[in-house]
Structures are given as C-alpha cells and as structure tokens.
C-alpha cells in the first residue's frame, strides 16, 4: 500500500486542446471541484506566457481549498542570463503558488535545434533555475520534457539532465512523454536506468498519441513512480493527456494505492461531468469507468448473468466511481433485459405476466420496422406503460400542417406549422414559425400544450438525429429519428419511425413531451 | 520482424456498442472496405444468435474479397448434447465461412455460475466442439473468454482449459480480456505461464474498460502473440474493443511488425472515416493517429518547431496513416490537399494559380459554417469547378413550397411539393407528392428537369443522412445533410448546410443532380 500524489493539469495542459477555452471564473470553479475531489496538486497555468493565468493565481487566493496545493508552471531560464534576470521565473515567484513546476530539455536534439545551446549549458540552466526556485518557493517539481524520446536518442545525456535537476534537491522529477509515442513495454528498462541514476521521487506525465497514456501512467506507478500528472477526462493537446478518471480508480481499486481521500472515489463521475459541462463538451459515452456506456449491457446472455453476479461482466462495481449498470434494449435482448429495464424504471413487472411477453413481441415487431430503443429509453418506458395500461392520454393531436416556402427573393425557405390539439375535451388550434419544418412543428406543439401543461416550457430539444434505413427494392426508405430532450434535472431520448421524416419526427417529439408530463406526475 | 494477423470484429463485437446497429447492406460495405485495407480476418457475426447475421454470410459470398477471410462466431456446444446435435455449431458450419471462431469458458466461476456444469465437463465440451469443427472447417480459432480473470481466480484450471483447446489442434488460441479489467503490468507473468502450458499460436482480444485495450494488445504482441482482435475505431460494448486504428500503426511503425499490405497503412484514416459514416457517428477528434486533432498544434512554440522539424512534437509522420499536420492558427497545409484532390478528379489546377488560394478560402469558410466534404466529394468537385469558372448553369430553382398535412382521418401526414425551375429561358412549374417533404421536393425537382435533361431519370437517391451540429450559445443549431446518389455506373455524395433542414436537403439534392449533368457531359 503506497501513497500516490495526483497532479491535475486540466487548467494548463488541458486548455491546449483544440476545443477547450476556459474563462478565469471557469478555472476557479474547476479548481474548487478538483479540491473537493481530493486532487493533491492543481496546476493553474503558466503565468509567464498568458495574462489570463496571472489573474487566475490572484483569484484562487481568495478561495479556501481543503486538500489541493496550487502549482504554477513555467520553464527553465533562458540562455545567457541569470534566473534573477529571467522574467518567466520572476513571474512564477510573483504568482506565489504553493508549488512551482518548471520544465527543461532532456532530448539532445531539442537542446541543439530548439534552444540552440550546448548540451553542457542546458545542464547548467536546469540546475541553477531549480536551485534559485528551491530557495524561494516551498516545493519545486521538475518536468523532464521529452524524457522518453531523449533517452532513446541519447541515454547518457538524458540521465545527466535528470541528475542536474536532482542535484538541486527538487521534490519530484517527472518523466514526460511529451509526444505521447512511448509504448508500455519500453518502461521497465528505462525506469530502471533512471532509478539507478537518481533517487529523487519520480512522477509520470503521459500524452495519449498512441492511445497508451493511461497504461503508461499505471506502468510507471507499478515500477515505482509516486506522482501522476494528467487531466480530468483526458483533456489536452492532440489526443489528450492521461485521463485521471481512469487512472484514479485503477490505482485505488486494482493496484492498492491510496489516493484521493476516503469516500471521494464515488464522486469521480460527477466531477467528470462537471468539467465537461464547464468546457461545453459532450461527455464521451464510452469513457472508461465514468462514461454512460461504461456499464451498459446489450446482449441477452450477458444481462441474465449480470443480474445474478455483476462481476461476470463488470470489472468493478460501477457504484465505486459513482456510475451505474444500465440494461440496453435491442434486437439482441431477451426477456431478462425487459424485466431488468422495467425494474430500473421503477415499473413492477412479473416475469410470468403475459404482458411481459407481449412487450417483447411488440419490441421485436417495432425493431423490424426500424425502431431502436438504445438512446430512446423514454420511448421504451412509455411503450411498457402503455402495454400495461398505466399511461394516461395527456393530449391528442388531431391535425397538423407544415409549409416550407422559398420565393425568388428569399435566401432560405421559411417554415410554418399549424396544429390542432385536444386536451380533455378542449381544442387548441395554433401556429408557429421555425427553422425548418420539424422545428416549426415542435414550436407549434409546445405552444398548443403550454396553456394546459405549463411545465412543457422547461423542455429543451438537445439533439436530433435522422437515419435513413436501407429499403428493400421497390419500397420506400424508412426513416428513424432520435430526439434527445432535457429539462433542468434530466435528459431523455425518444424515437420515431416512418417513411415520412415529418411523421417520424412528430412521433419522437410527441413522446418527448408525453414523457415529461408522465415523469413530472410520478 | 514478425507477421501479425489482424482480426476485425466490428461487424460482431462492434455491434454490441450502445449506439451501433448495422443493416446487412452496411455490413457488406464495411467488409469490402476492411478487405481493401488489408485486414486478415473479418468476423461477420454470430449466425446462431441472430437471423440478420445469417443473411450477411449469404450476401458476402457474392462479393469478391482479395485479402480477408470471413470468420463466423459462435460458442462451444451446450452441455449434455453432442456437437452434431448442437444447433449453434450446425449453423456455424452452414454459414460456410473461411474460418470459425468459437468461445469457451476459462473462468471456473463462470463454469459453475453461468454454465452450471462441472469443471471437467467444460473441458470436454471445449475439446470436442473444437475437434468436431476442425474436421469440418478449414481453420478454427478458439477465444478463451475471460481468460485473464479466470487465470487470476484459478490459474491451473484456466491453463487446463487452454490445453483442452490446444489438444484439438486449433489454429490459434485467443486470450480474451472480456471484462477489460486487466492492466498491462500483469501480462508478462500470465503470458509466460500460457507459453509454458501450450505451444499453439496465441492471440489477444482486449476490451477497453480500464482504458488499456490498445496497450494490452501491444503488450501481448511484445510478449509473443501473433494474432490481434479489435475493431476499427474501437467500436464495441461498454467502453469498446481495442482500437485497430491505433494498434496497426504502432505494430507497423514502432514495433517492426508486418501487417496490412504494402502501401495500405496510408489508407487507415479514410477507412476509419468510412466506418464512422456508415455507423452515423461523429468521428472522435482526439482519436490517436486518425483523429482530426491527432496532429493539430495550437501553441506558438510548438508550431515554429514543427515547421522546422516535425519530429519535435509529432511521434510519427501523420501522412503514414493518411492524416496531416494541422496548424490551428494559420492553416496553409490545405493547399496540397486541394491540388491532390483536383488531380484525383481530373481537374488541372496550378499551385501558383490564385484560384487555388481562393478555393482554399472558400473551403475554410464553408467548413466554419459546418460543411464537411468527406463523403461529399461531388459537392467538393462542383465547388472547385465553380471557382474556376468551368461549371455551366444547368438550371435555376426560383421558388418552391413544401406542404405536409395530417388530418383527423390520416394515419400519416401527406407531403406535397411545388417547384418553379428555369432552364435556358424556359420556366417549368410543377408539383409532386412524396414520403415526407424532402422526398416530395426531390420528386418535384426531377419532374421539372426531366423534360430538359432525360438522364435525370437514371439518378437514384441511395442514402440520406442528417446531423445536427452543436450550436454556439444563443444561436440556432446548424443542420448538415449528406446525400448519396447513384446511377447505373457510379455513386456520388453531396452535402448541404443550413439552419433549416429543408434548405440543407435542397442544396444537397440540387448538387446531386448538377453533378449528374456535369459528369454526363465530360
């Protein structure tokens, strides 16, 4: 049982990702959440390269963190000046973080081509930058940039550069796979050589360019590293940094390593979600441990086994990381899936009840028509409720019309929908414009219903997908529409199928609203 | 230098993914593309579990594959019957594939809890199922389900189960990490024990539940496995299967292993894209090797280094896998692509011609709007021709209207389109019904044009895809429509983008007809 220090660089290396840009307020909110999660170090930015980052270091001082230390990032001094003359280094000290991390060059090729100085001079500036900082800052970490490529190019020199850092008595030396090209089987030999050359505690900083960042990080820990750098959700340049959302549970649950505090691992999924939200990115369904699909089961054989013994097809208990088992409904599914799904929705269904078999038949029939209930669990739930006679008729649409018009002078067509809806004997007949026919129909339907059901105003259309299913020869193609809707506390998916895209969309939209009304009632 | 056999299970294990469902036609198209890529084995499905899969094995026989063998998947026989009496096994033989792969139980816990038979009986049914198949099928592969978990629970029994398979003289024994929970550092000891127990060639089948599927696959090869199972893009249940798009280049470029044929590695990215398209999924930007961001550089320091020496921040040359370096601030690398594309279409374009730069600007502008020309090469070609002044105005649509009506007595809405088209001074004003607004508009447009251009009658709409692109805050979502059309000798793709789905569809449909007229002229 050893203790591993977690170093999160979502706020620095994470923002190098193509699609990520955080405001200072976002960075402060993320830092507070990482602190709650129990991360040991939060790298807040590079004060010498980015004015936004200076503001962050000022702002974070006003917050009370209970666990995390704040680290500032920078580089070794420039050539031919002293650390005291180096603006970059001075700004690190001014930022007044708990910890300073600077990177230096390990790879002889980079020393010659990027720094354009002698190998000897590089060793000097690594050492004196670190000595200078170590005298002025409580804790100093050294990131050996391109360590693995450097070692492969010139092992003696790469190790000398680590020794130059070790001689400055730094608190940790981090081996960086900056280009992300190293494979796990290369670690044992390289780590052994490092451990022979220096006795400073070692860290790992892996990038995911070959899809091995998580594995490489865990391999380094297995071989003795005690400090792991990464980002939540693996955000980072190119293919991303090592994903702490996978590393943390593996360390805790599989390798017997202590990290985070007691009871905090179960908040991992919600922390992951929170950061996706602030980054305005859709979470990766298939993300290990924390993704929506991470414990989702489709095959009938798997499902009946899972019900009896979850460990048959789950490598950990999903609850350990705040996730849950999900049973998917598809053409591969059997009766066990239906029962499991019903239970999940809080619907009592007896395996001997003929209605179970009826639902199964209905589903097979609908799947043959082109329905698909994965991603449309709300439609599935409505289907079950309807079969069991437990679904109220909230409204009925008796007529609608959608008109799209393009005239000579228009840049794009204009869409208008009219609709006639009946609710408890009352008829509402109304109209709305929209961006395209589906949008117009959606608006008109809500407008017609909102006077009867004000909560309809909370529902948002979040995603809309259309798939044309290949037709048999001589027949019309079938169109499947998947709609994702949400309100302030939930998201749900619905589906419609028809040869007519408007009809399929209408079915999915209507289901989305019915589901909202049903769930608010129960 | 060794030879590694690649075994793709996109069509079987890949379809276990939550969001994937392929029609038989899709499966045939994917198999053909995997064959072109140079994959050794294509696992087409499980004939005993799914009627759709039987149809696939019939359909694929009509195609000529140049590289790949087709494998059918199934399980060992059931208890208390002979292989000859086992329906599952008989259907494998009836499917008449080149290779049969069956899985059996390795984990004592599963034998007791799932099969509910004795450990001894399980060894018998592994052996006699394989012996029976080996006598009737050219090549037999054995998937040892849950091998790693089984080994950890009861190493002696796990190895005995492999020996039962080896005694049947199977062609390959595949160690499966079915639950995806194994870590790379566990491989050396386990693989050594296997290699001591049996001498059959070994394969690896890894799942990504701990984010290590790629690493585990490569680790197994490093330790002597010669057969790797995975899926393109890592499609698969829960967190996916091992992604062949990362494994293949690592084997080829980093581990000195032969796989695919000469020159085919550079088609990896386009194969990856093709399969995303057929699955109607958005490609993962950050996917190693083949993702759009895999070689995208944001930081200023990196960019200037990259310009001089790409190896400073790129672990491989992106061109090796058909990808490219992208500089996110000033993207000039596109010019070469444009020239290459023009050449491919038989259009003469001079790199010094200002029109090249203009096309580049147009494309950037359109890509910012949401256009995407992968899968819409006909629209791309028309764009180039238009910029060069080489595209004739075949027709202009001056107005259209589409009306969808649902009345009380209707089962589904009725769609009608009217259109006004001008061709060489003559105006045609006509109308048509259709299944949905897009279909009606398509019919009306053809009806208006066919008197001027009779060849329009040959064009068929083969596929129609709609994707909603994420909107910026406060703006409307943008919709992208991809249309695939065909005539008796060619297929082509076109694209349209708008906030209105009818407008986007109209653009793509109009391009499809213009392209037909252009190509018949040249």
From TrEMBL, chains A, B:
Enzyme class name: transferase
Example GO molecular function: 2-isopropylmalate synthase activity
Entry keyword set: Amino-acid biosynthesis, Branched-chain amino acid biosynthesis, Isoleucine biosynthesis, Transferase
Transmembrane portions of the chain: none
A biological process term (GO) from this entry: L-leucine biosynthetic process
Keyword Amino-acid biosynthesis: yes
Reaction equations catalysed: pyruvate + acetyl-CoA + H2O = (3R)-citramalate + CoA + H(+)
Family as reported in the entry's similarity comment: Belongs to the alpha-IPM synthase/homocitrate synthase family.
Protein name per the record: Citramalate synthase
